[in-house]
């Protein structure tokens, strides 16, 4: 404060005298100056509020933050030309003047538009600065605080981060043989579609699969970005897969959020919103089995003929003719008295043949000898992976008739073991004649048949037509009387006394009393002219 006082007085002669004051000398007239203490102080609080336009409870890209600024004059002098600047936003309002102790919370505002980078960071952080001028022209300033006029912390507006990832896995069989389905040894091409379904960018995105080695990656995904081509895998179909009938599995996608958090998702077969496993259907299961049975007569006494008590050894070849693995394979045989050894076969792969596990032994009976053969059929049973039981009747691989009696596509001829006949020492049937009058093989010779006169002979052509029949065949010491010389006796299609053509015929010889070892013989006879 600057001022001067005036002193006046009147002399005796009435003269008026005066003097301007001085602060320290009676000889000078300087004004008296009293210095007053000035303390200009300003403060700023900045707050931010997210404008949740879509009401989802989170800050999204292009939504805004409204900033409010409160200015405080904390000094003892009036401040004028007060302004606020902010490196993040354009501040609206001002300049203003504030008396000491006054506060302004309405003049200044700002709006900030949120970016993806802000959400990736998880918050928006910044500070504004307020400046003002006191009466002496001195400029004062303050960095903003978030809640106190006495501090200078930056204003931090938290933004919610929702990192998320989704994965789709699709399997396409490569039908290499063109049969319309996936077979053993063929491949499945897997493709993976990965999408960033969260609100922050993802890095180090990878795909793993317990079934296959996934090729490709790692990659980064922006928000909403989808990758359809980076990740692939190839899987080779195994027998176990074929047995099951399908391949089922899931892959996993992983990614890293900006804050270091890991996110993951199990794959779905067609949707980013679900997590169902990917199922690839293979060729339809076709369980099938084949059994071959062969028998061999064992001439234990070495006499060249079959005797009661001698045996037949059977061998079995089991083949998996389907496309799935078979289990618990067993063989049964209805032949009374047969003993089967070996088994069960625990497991048989498609195309595999087992010819060593099963054997059987059968003891020959008198009835078998009378029949001249042993005819029978075995049955094989097995189970597939689903427990379905399949069977096959045995086939005799030496019989080329190949009848398929049960319609399963596999031949089912019974196994026939011919038993050597017990012939008398002087009894023998010759099965070829050349009736040309040269005196050699001119008739059907049954050596020694004259010893068994109570006999009957029938001869048939290949169509089953009876062309010759007689009782008491081969009388006389040379077995040459009443014999067949290739001439028809006249039966249906063949005229009597007509020479029969070259070809194969069939005979049946029966005895009504004494016989050379059996009551009946049969076989083929060949006429060659």
TrEMBL record:
Top-rank taxon: Bacteria
Domain (DUF7507) ranges: 39-142, 162-265, 286-392
Name of the protein in its database record: T9SS type B sorting domain-containing protein
Source taxonomy: Bacteria, Pseudomonadati, Bacteroidota, Flavobacteriia, Flavobacteriales
Renumbered residue ranges of the record's region Disordered: 384-413
